[in-house]
Write a structure and sequence with these properties.
12 strands; Ribosomal Protein S5, domain 2; four-stranded mixed beta sheet; 2 domains; four-stranded antiparallel beta sheet; 32% helix; 10 helices
Length: 275
């Protein structure tokens, strides 16, 4: 079985409170994109489950990879047999795009089909939540409002038909601890679902749609801030960092060729798609 785990972007990300357990409450709109990894799962040739990663290197032992953790969670609950897993990484790591979380969620969904477990989305999302806070989103894989630690999800309506999405990942790394470490949680009065449903992207900045992580990350990583500025210079209607970075996306009203982005951001990873 071959599936294509996709990335996401965050439109608006507010850190509203620090929880007693040390985690943070957030409010964010999570939107799927078509920047994808490639994941193949087949019956095992031997008696043990294996994971082979190609493409972008992932610097962690196989058992700590989120894909293998997802397999182990399913094995423990449902006694599924061994498989061989092949993951070709295309989505950049450390980008705030949820690539690893998507790989894990798609692993759960693929195993559900392979072993005819007939689990519903809510059950699979519950398993995914034990792997990582972004993982449940990719089970549903549609625009969602994420609240709480990011695992409480509710559908939202947002229409970006006709817009072009550009995602740029500079050569920078932002750890989650670094991003949260400089943030001061604050309540927000912005009704993000209502705003995104009625306001066009050109009005989002003025309406207060922002990513709280930018205050800290841009201060320590001016190169990431520069990408956002350059996207606006190219004519983006709205631009923002995704998640805790380091990728930045721009939403454009016009068509954009990959060569234009390659020329504007030499040496950087990027993805262009029509929404």
């Amino acid at each position: 079985m071959i599936v294509f785990p996709n990335a996401k972007i965050n439109i608006g990300l507010y850190i509203t409170a620090r929880r007693p357990d040390g985690y943070h409450d957030i409010v964010s709109a999570m939107i799927p994109t078509d920047w994808c990894d490639i994941l193949e799962i087949v019956p095992a040739k031997g008696v043990e489950t294996t994971l082979t990663v190609t493409g972008r290197g992932v610097d962690c032992p196989a058992e700590k990879n989120l894909v293998m953790r997802a397999y182990r969670a399913m094995e423990q609950r449902y006694g599924i047999g061994p498989v061989d897993i092949y993951l070709n990484k295309i989505i950049p790591d450390g980008a705030g795009l949820g690539g690893g979380s998507s790989d894990a969620a798609f692993t759960i969904a693929a195993l559900n089909k392979m072993f005819c477990l007939e689990l519903d989305d809510d059950t699979m999302a519950g398993i995914a939540a034990t792997i990582g806070s972004d993982c449940p989103f990719f089970i549903y894989n549609r625009p969602m409002l994420a609240t709480g630690t990011g695992t409480t999800l509710s559908p939202i309506e947002i229409s970006l038909n006709g817009y072009t999405l550009v995602i740029v990942k500079p050569d920078a790394h932002v750890s989650t601890a670094e991003a949260y470490g400089g943030c001061a949680p604050r309540p927000t009065s912005t009704s993000l679902p209502d705003l995104l449903a009625v306001q066009p992207p050109c009005d989002w900045t003025e309406a207060g749609v922002e990513n709280d992580f930018e205050r800290t990350v841009f201060r320590h990583h001016p190169r990431i801030a520069g990408v956002k500025e350059d996207l606006y210079r190219l004519g983006a209607e709205y631009a923002s960092m995704s998640g805790s970075g380091a990728s930045v996306f721009g939403i454009f009203r016009r068509d954009i060729l990959a060569d234009e982005i390659r020329g504007a951001f030499p040496g950087m990873d990027f993805h262009v798609s029509k929404l």
